Amino acid sequence: KQLFPNVFYKAVSAYWKVAAGPFTYEVRPAGATPESAPAIRVTGRLDAGKAYTVAAVGPRDSLEGVLFRDDMSPSAPGKAKLRFLDAATDLPPVDIALAGGRVLSSNVDFPEPTGYAQLATGNYRLEVRRSGGDAHPGSAPRTGGRKSGHAGARG
């Protein structure tokens, strides 16, 4: 059964209610038949009343699927929750930090997402650093990622 037609690269779909229990999620290129081989296949067990994210990460020719539980509880007043996923399969572990400032999540490594951090609502520049250091990771082939980024935090 097709749940999310036309979810494009870097796009995020809405949450969809699915039954608790064993779960299989397959992603195919747009226009592919249901019988064709999936680009990714994720299996797991879903708990009732919980929210999950399935992500396709890595280079296009060797995508991997990951499933992780989302925390839908409200953030503290005036705060926003955020977490990170290192989707660059060919980089060493990294630290995510405020630009020129403190580390928000350390030793982030594919494919595990970080726990949630809370920040005051606002806009922030972020840096990706070598884990335990202050240098940016070197450019690696086919990472598709940036060494710095921007995040908006909304409660």
Overview in brief:
With 155 residues, the protein is mainly beta.
Describe the structure.
- Helix content is about 0%, strand content about 40%.
- It has strands at about 20-25, 40-45, 50-55, 65-70, 80, 95-100, 105-110, 115-120, 120-130, 150-155.
- The strands form 4 sheets. A 4-stranded antiparallel beta sheet has the order 7-6-9-10, with no helix packed on it.
- It is globular, with a radius of gyration of 17 Å.
- It starts with 20 loop residues before the first strand and ends with a strand.
**Helix and strand sequence:** EEEEEEEEEE
Number of E strands: 10
Shape: globular
Strand order within the widest sheet? 7-6-9-10
CA(first)-CA(last) distance: 34 Å
Chart the SSEs and their pairings.
Elements: E1 21-27, E2 40-46, E3 51-57, E4 64-70, E5 79-82, E6 94-98, E7 103-108, E8 117-120, E9 122-130, E10 148-153
Antiparallel strand pairs: 1-2, 3-4, 5-8, 6-7, 6-9, 9-10
Keywords:
155 residues; mainly beta; four-stranded antiparallel sheet; two-stranded antiparallel ribbon; 0% helix; disordered C terminus
